[in-house]
Amino acid sequence: MPSAQRSLILPRIHHRDIKERLVEAFLFICAASAVAVTTAIVVVLVYESAGFFERVSIVDFLTDTMWTPLFAEARYGILPLLCGTLLAAGVALLVAVPLGLLVALYLSEFAPVKVRESVKPFLELLEGVPTVVYGYFALLFVTPLLQNVIPDLPGFNVLSPGIVIGIMIVPYVGSVSEDAMRAVPNALREASYACGATRLQTTLRVVMPAAASGIAAAFVLGIARATGETMVVAIAAGQQPNLTLDPTEPAATITAYIVQVALGDLPHGSIGYQSIFAAGLVLLLITLVFNILAHLLRMRFREAY
Q1: Staple 173 to which of 101, 137, 222, 281, CB 3.0 to 4.6 Å?
Q2: Within this chain, do residues 13 and 151 fall inside the same structural domain, yes or no?
Q3: Which CATH number belongs to the domain containing residue 246 in this structure?
Q4: What's the pLDDT at 2?
Q5: Can you give the residue range of the structural domain that contains 141?
Q6: What's the number of CA atoms in the CB half-sphere (13 Å) around residue 258?
Q7: pTM of the model as a whole
Q8: Does residue 63 belong to any structural domain of this protein?
Q9: What is the mean pLDDT of residues 244-257?
């Protein structure tokens, strides 16, 4: 290669290498910032919770059935808040899983292209609605509607916000499940059709098992999303720590308690102030368990199929 051409090519290569290194450095900073923020959150929760557990026994915290941190005779049993959180998430899951799966099946396997392109944006638009709107929708519309069916239903209850949270996460569950089904190779569908299977049989016996890892992950992540919901339960569930498994009764969740205390005038460093970090640490651990479970399910189904 002539020296003149080499002198022109080498600066271009050097300039391109600098660009690639800058892009790599920027992407690394973005990834590291996510890890740093998560680490900072964990450190703050653990640090503040350590001060709380210096005053409150962790055994009482996990076993006591009363949560009255703002009373004169304060008791710090997390079970009522934990029960309310899981109860609301369970009701939401009963709504979101079947609806989300049916939506995903229709959009992935049965809907024409034009219908899919029209429906999916509207479905995903529901994810952008502020949760406070869902909260007042549960309180002012769903609860009176349910009272026509259940006359003794109180104005604040877990059933109404649970149903609304389920509706709220249907787009999330449906979208992730639909993406998993769409990722199944068409060769599997064509092989099933060649064996004489109908579209429904192909969907249920070929597509769903092949997409099981993504569907399972969508379900578990949907539970995590429902568990961390704040405004809907804070507005419509009543904010009364109540150890119950009856969704028609009022209850408080961990997130609702955090909102309730954060709006007050508790002094920094007081045990009541530190209790919100202990409750937040429990919520973080619950979310971590769900995410680990989703990862394990995804890996297991990938190995199976």
Answers
A1: 222
A2: no
A3: 1.10.3720.10
A4: 54
A5: 79-304
A6: 20
A7: 0.83
A8: no
A9: 87
